Q: What sequence folds into this?
């Protein structure tokens, strides 16, 4: 039995296999409509989510399986003080696979060690979000046709953004990757990610506060929101929340084939005027999330 807590638990060959399966599902959905007949997915979301939770549910239902679970900690026995370990021991008696989101870093790892069924990390604090990264990778493959020799810009909250940390880890394994980090000083990429991922893998990277200056270099621009829920101080959040707002004017000098990604939800960091630009990929990205999660559920349940 295998779980998925961190994107680096998957080899690049396994990522290619998942991306290929997801592409096949996208092209032949009817062929997969009964792959998970009789299987149950439990969604345990101790933190609010729209896309991740619903895309997991949509994925399982599209495979013919069923779904049970909760969408906030207050509607579970966690509100009575039950530990994550006990919740997981209980829920794994009722389900075949579990998707879990938790505000505490490391909680899904604890869950996996106490579960009788595979556990998928749907996001743990500012730490990891492997299925968003798989979604991002499927989007990159469809938009660019490759993972190597790409310059990827990350803009916004690079300190707390778990989607950023996961995607940087994934992209660092591909040849010719170049990373551009754009953020205010207070929201820079943590030094441990630079040291353990970028420097360790010999990845070329630059840090800047000026998005427009680096825009012409980028093949991919990964925008993120400044996350109110990660701040201890409302004043700091209000001061930083509008640091970078992507508008059509800022894209004037961007490449014609730039791909703009965003893990969503968007607050105001991408102007709605950008939505009609063919380079805006973020709603296509949402759609890809469903198919990559279908592929992952099948892989962890060992369904051919």
A:
């Amino acid at each position: 039995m295998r779980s998925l807590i961190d994107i680096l638990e998957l080899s690049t060959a396994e990522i290619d296999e998942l991306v290929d399966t997801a592409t096949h599902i996208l092209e032949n959905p009817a062929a997969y409509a009964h792959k998970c007949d009789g299987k149950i997915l439990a969604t345990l979301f101790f933190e609010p989510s729209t896309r991740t939770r619903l895309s997991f549910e949509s994925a399982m239902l599209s495979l013919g399986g069923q779904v049970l679970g909760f969408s906030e900690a207050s509607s579970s026995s966690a509100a009575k003080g039950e530990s994550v370990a006990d919740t997981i021991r209980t829920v794994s008696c009722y389900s075949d696979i579990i998707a879990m989101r938790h505000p505490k870093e490391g909680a899904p790892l604890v869950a996996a060690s106490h579960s009788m069924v595979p556990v998928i990390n749907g996001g743990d604090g500012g730490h990891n979000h492997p299925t968003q990264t798989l979604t991002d990778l499927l989007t990159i493959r469809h938009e660019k046709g490759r993972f190597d020799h790409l310059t990827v810009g990350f803009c916004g909250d690079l300190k707390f953004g778990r989607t950023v940390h996961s995607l940087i880890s994934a992209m660092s394994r591909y040849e010719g990757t170049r990373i551009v980090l754009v953020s205010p000083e207070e929201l820079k990429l943590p030094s441990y990610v630079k040291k353990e991922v970028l420097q360790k893998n010999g990845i070329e990277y630059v840090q800047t506060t000026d998005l427009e200056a680096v825009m012409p270099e980028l093949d991919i621009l990964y925008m993120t929101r400044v996350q109110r829920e990660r701040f201890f101080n409302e004043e700091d959040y209000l001061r930083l929340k509008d640091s970078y707002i992507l508008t059509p004017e800022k894209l004037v000098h961007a490449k014609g084939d730039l791909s703009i990604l965003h893990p969503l939800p968007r607050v105001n960091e991408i102007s709605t005027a950008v939505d009609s630009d063919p380079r805006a990929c973020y709603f296509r990205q949402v759609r890809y999330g469903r198919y990559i999660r279908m592929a992952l559920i099948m892989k962890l349940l060992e369904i051919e």
The CA atoms of residues 44 and 70 lie 5 Å apart. The radius of gyration is 19 Å. DSSP finds ten helices and nine strands in the chain. The chain has a mean pLDDT of 92.
